Structure formats: structure tokens, C-alpha cells
């Protein structure tokens, strides 16, 4: 059975993920930045309103994965918050300037997270040697790795993902993510043999505003009067297609 983790950008998306049959949600904010840590309220209400596992991302900002001492302290504090709210796990990754896993800092965060589990996120796709990083992440004790195979999309990186799954030998879960849709999920699973996959399964939802100021937006090149929310139907369809792959 192939299962799905949904990248949920809100409490509403987490609820939809559960309705669609997701195994777990990676709860985050700011998907346009690749995901940053959700607010206390988002995490608290998600834990109250869904019964599936909740893994908030621990990422203080967008951009690279080389963090200052202050950002590292923020990450420790956010992990403490997740533990207080009884989250099942957290998602993070820290790199050195030379593109290697920051073993010591990751070790500190994992110690802070216990007994919660941890996923190493797509910082893995920015390392200089994924096979070396794989062994380090396994040694550290992460539960899984989210990866696109160091390519723009998981389908483009399918060959690398398959090799990582083979190299891991069942010691850690390798979970494909990035650009996954109903149009490619069956092909991706067939090519990689993955048993878990990650996607947002989101769809645009139009604003209920009857007046829209056409002259400006509040930040970035985006439509201010459309939000994206996970679709339970899309989640359901993705899981069914993944399990139909030969």
C-alpha cells in the first residue's frame, strides 16, 4: 500500500488531507517560499481538529539552509512548541556552507525533538553528495527523507530516487516530493518503487470579496483574491493512482 503525506498550508488544508485519506500532514506556511514554520495557532488547531499525524516544518525563513545562531535558537524554540502541542513529529534540515549535512546541529535538534520523530526535508536536494548525506541522516536517526532526487521535480529525479531507495535498504523511508500530480503519480511510483509520497494536492479557491481593488497587490506577483487549499478529492485520486501503478 502506497501512502501519502500532504503538505498542508493551513488548518483547512489539513482537514481536507484527512478527508482524502492522507497518512500524515506536513504543516507549513508560505508555500511560495518552499514552506516555513506555521503559527502556534495553526499547529494547535490542526492538532485539535485532525486525528492523523501532524509534522510541522521547522524552517524560520525561505532561502538556503545555512542558519545563523539566532535562527538556530528559533528552530529549537519552535520544536519545543511542537512537543508541547503533542505533535507526532517535525520536519527540518540544516546544511553547512559547503553543502553537507550539519551533523552536529541536526543532532541537537533531534535531541530536542524526542520523543517526536523527524523527517529531513528537501535541504537534502541541496547537498553536494546525496549518497554520503543519506548515510549521515540514517546515522542521526531521522525517520524519512523528502526528496526530488536533486531535480526540479520528483519525476525528473526518479532515477536518483530509485537508487536512494535501493541504497537505503529499508533503513529509512525515501519519500518523493515536488511536482507530483494526478498526471504523473502512477509513473513516478512505477519508476521508483516508493511506498510513500508527498504533495500539496491544492486547488485554487476564489475569494468571496465583491469589491477587489485592481491597482495593487499586497506582496509578490500573485492574485490577491485567490487562495490555494488542499482538495480532499485530489488526495483521494492521487492515493488511488499511486496504488494502481505496476
Could you provide a short overview of the structure?
With 246 residues, the protein is α/β, with parallel strands linked by helices. It is built from 8 helices and 10 strands.
Uncertain runs with pLDDT below 50, 5 residues or more? Answer: none
Strands of the largest sheet, in order across it? 3-2-1-8
- What is the number of helices? 8
Q: Would you tell me the overall average pLDDT?
A: 95
The SSE string, one letter per element, is EHEHEHEHEHEHEHEEEH
Please bin the fraction of helical residues: 25-40%
- The number of distinct β-strands equals 10
Which structural class matches the secondary elements? alpha/beta
CA(first)-CA(last) distance: 12 Å
Shape: globular
